[in-house]
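can u do me a favor
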């Protein structure tokens, strides 16, 4: 297994200048590469401060020029919002620019308001995503594709930008819902599921649910490549740790707000609203790898032993987390946490093999 730096790039306060936030994200990903992270993930969202990247492939094209080893992943491309011929070209282009370091994470989306601005409903999004996956797979397998589906039609089209990677660009599927997990099972994709910031027991339930769906699709559990998403921050300063956890709670609140199915938002900056049953910063600190290096390594080891993930994506900065604090945390993860983790568990590359 390995770790990924998950970059939502949200903007908590208007005083955070967008160019500065984007440049700081690039620096954090460069630091993650030095800290032995395997992948840097870039999210896609639209029309609010929840996430600033409308085009993860555009960000990856930039990152390709300023990194050398770390894999660059979309988490996710909202495939239902794209035109097939353009998406094929942009995937091939990003893979070429990165010398074959692209991972294509795909999802169908959950924010009704952003889908609607592209003329897509939540009911349509999953069908459209599956059709787009058919187009991508066929195009990169054969060098050409012709497609006529319910939502997309493409006349016979040659693919001029074939993937650099042998076997094509790896495709991962993100989602916790039964239909999304079933789609990943049928197609043999690694599954990227969220732990929603909760405890190890909750994470085991997410894994158990994925296994049930996998079996229901007639697939062996040994073929399930299960990846998780967690909050992580390395610091000896308890006040700094709590501040990060409070910023994580802010992100949870925004995500909860956007899952209400609203068609319209009050503005580009979302309200910060508490909700019944939400986690406190103290619970987030207790349930996630947040704290000093020894504590972070201990919590990660417990999660790895309980869930045996193929990959763990880590939110290393959220909300208004200061850039210098995020950089120190990332650097300490590589310098202090990984050696402790490998001392306890052995080489990470051997886990799950």
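np, heres the sequence
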């Amino acid at each position: 297994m390995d770790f990924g730096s998950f970059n939502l790039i949200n903007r908590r306060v208007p005083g955070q200048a967008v160019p500065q936030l984007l440049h700081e994200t690039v620096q954090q990903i460069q630091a993650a590469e030095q800290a032995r992270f395997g992948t840097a993930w870039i999210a896609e969202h639209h029309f609010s401060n929840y996430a600033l990247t409308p085009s993860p492939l555009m960000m990856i094209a930039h990152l390709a020029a300023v990194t050398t080893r770390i894999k660059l992943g979309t988490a996710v491309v909202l495939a239902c919002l794209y035109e097939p011929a353009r998406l094929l070209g942009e995937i091939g282009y990003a893979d070429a620019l990165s010398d074959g370091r692209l991972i294509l994470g795909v999802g169908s989306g959950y924010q009704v308001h952003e889908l609607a601005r592209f003329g897509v409903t939540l009911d349509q999004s999953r069908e459209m995503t599956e059709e787009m996956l058919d187009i991508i797979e066929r195009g990169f397998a054969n060098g050409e594709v012709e497609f006529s589906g319910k939502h997309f039609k493409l006349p016979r089209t040659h693919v001029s930008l074939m993937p650099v990677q042998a076997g094509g660009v790896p495709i991962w599927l993100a989602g916790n819902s039964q239909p999304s997990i079933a789609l990943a099972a049928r197609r043999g994709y690694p599954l990227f599921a969220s732990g929603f910031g909760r405890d190890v027991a909750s994470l085991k339930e997410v894994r158990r649910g994925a296994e049930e769906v996998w079996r229901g699709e007639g697939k062996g559990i040994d073929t399930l490549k299960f990846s998780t998403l967690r909050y992580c921050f390395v610091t000896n300063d308890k006040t700094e740790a709590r501040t990060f956890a409070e910023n994580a709670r802010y992100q949870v609140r925004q995500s909860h707000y956007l899952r209400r199915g609203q068609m319209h938002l009050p503005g580009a900056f979302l309200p910060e609203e508490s909700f019944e049953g939400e986690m406190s910063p103290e619970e987030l600190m207790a349930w996630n790898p947040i704290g000093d290096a020894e504590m972070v390594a201990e919590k990660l080891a417990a999660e790895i032993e309980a869930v045996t993930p193929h990959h763990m994506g880590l939110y290393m900065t959220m909300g208004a987390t200061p850039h210098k604090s995020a950089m120190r945390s990332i650097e300490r993860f590589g310098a202090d946490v990984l050696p402790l983790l490998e001392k306890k568990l052995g080489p990470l590359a051997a886990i799950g093999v």
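The chain has a mean pLDDT of 97. hope that helps!!
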